[in-house]
C-alpha cells in the first residue's frame, strides 16, 4: 500500500466525513483500529485538523464510495502529487568541467600533504574522483606523477572555501573523537591547520624550491623522486 501523507489528519477527516469502519480507516491510514477509535472518541489527535485525502490526490471518490458500500473492502491509496513535491531531492554527483579534471591530482596531493585526517572517501566525494586515483597520487604511481604538485583545490576552482573549511573541520572533529576513544592525547599548542591557513602557508613558500609533496624530511619518503 502507498504510504499516505499525514495519516492521523487523514484519519480525522475520514472519521468525521464518512461512514467507514474503524478497520477500513486504520488499514488505509496505517494506524491501529483502537487508535482510530480513540480519534472518534476525541481521546486521540484532538488538536489535529482533518486532511481530505480526495482533495490532496491520495484517494478517489470511487474508492471511497465503494468502501462505504462494502465494509469488507479495503481502499487503495493513490500516489499523491504532493508526496512527489515533498520528496527530498537527491543531490547530483559533483560535476567537474573537463578543463579542470587535469587539476584534480594536484588537489589530491594537497590533501595528502596538508590534511591526512581527511579520509579518501571524503576527498573522493569532494573532488569527484576515485579512491584508486587517490592511491596512485599518494604512492606516486600516477601516470603523471612527475608533474603533480600540491595545489589548494580552492585555488584550482574545484571547490569553494566554505566547502573546504567545512570538510576539514568535520574530519578534524572525527579524528579528535577517535583519538579520545583510543586514549590518544594531542600535544598542547596548535595542531591541525585550517584549510585557509594551509593555503596561506603554501603561498609563503612559493619562493622556495619544491623538493616534493612534504616539507618535513620524516615523511618525504612517500613522495621521493629518487629512482630505485
Q: State the helical fraction.
A: 40-55%
Order of helices and strands: HHHHHHHHHHH
Q: What is the count of helical runs?
A: 11
N-to-C span: 66 Å
User: What shape does the CA trace take?
Assistant: elongated
Radius of gyration from CA coordinates: 30 Å
Largest sheet: none
Determine the mean pLDDT: 77
Number of separate strands: 0
Query: Which structural class is indicated by helix and strand composition?
Result: mainly alpha
Low-pLDDT windows of residues = 188-192, 215-228
Strand content: under 5%
What would you say this structure looks like, in words?
- With 228 residues, the chain is mainly alpha-helical.
- The protein is 46% helix and 0% strand.
- It has 11 helices and no strands.
- The longest helix has 22 residues, at 161-182.
- It is elongated and about 80 Å long.
List keywords for this structure.
single chain
Please write out the topology:
Blueprint: H1 7-17, H2 22-29, H3 33-40, H4 61-69, H5 81-86, H6 98-101, H7 104-114, H8 120-127, H9 131-138, H10 161-182, H11 195-204
Helix pairs in contact: 1-2, 2-3, 7-9
Structure in a nutshell:
This protein is mostly helical and 228 residues long. Helices cover 46% and strands 0% of the residues.
Amino acid at each position: 500500500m502507498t504510504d499516505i501523507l499525514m495519516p492521523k489528519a487523514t484519519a480525522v477527516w475520514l472519521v468525521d466525513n464518512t461512514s467507514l469502519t474503524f478497520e477500513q480507516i486504520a488499514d488505509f491510514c496505517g494506524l491501529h483500529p483502537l487508535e482510530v477509535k480513540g480519534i472518534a472518541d476525541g481521546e486521540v489527535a484532538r488538536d489535529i485538523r482533518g486532511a481530505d485525502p480526495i482533495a490532496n490526490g491520495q484517494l478517489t471518490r470511487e474508492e471511497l464510495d465503494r468502501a462505504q458500500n462494502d465494509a469488507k473492502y479495503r481502499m487503495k491509496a493513490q500516489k499523491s502529487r504532493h508526496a512527489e513535491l515533498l520528496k527530498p531531492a537527491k543531490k547530483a554527483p559533483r560535476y567537474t568541467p573537463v578543463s579542470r579534471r587535469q587539476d584534480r591530482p594536484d588537489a589530491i596531493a594537497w590533501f595528502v600533504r596538508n590534511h591526512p585526517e581527511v579520509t579518501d572517501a571524503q576527498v573522493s566525494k569532494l573532488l569527484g574522483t576515485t579512491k584508486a586515483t587517490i592511491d596512485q597520487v599518494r604512492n606516486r604511481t600516477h601516470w603523471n606523477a612527475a608533474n603533480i604538485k600540491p595545489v589548494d583545490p580552492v585555488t584550482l576552482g574545484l571547490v569553494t572555501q566554505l566547502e573546504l573549511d567545512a570538510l576539514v573541520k568535520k574530519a578534524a572533529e572525527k579524528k579528535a573523537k577517535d583519538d579520545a576513544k583510543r586514549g590518544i592525547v594531542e600535544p598542547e599548542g596548535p595542531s591541525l591547520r585550517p584549510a585557509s591557513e594551509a593555503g596561506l602557508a603554501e603561498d609563503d613558500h612559493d619562493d622556495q624550491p619544491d623538493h616534493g609533496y612534504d616539507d618535513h624530511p620524516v615523511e618525504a619518503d612517500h613522495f621521493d623522486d629518487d629512482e630505485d
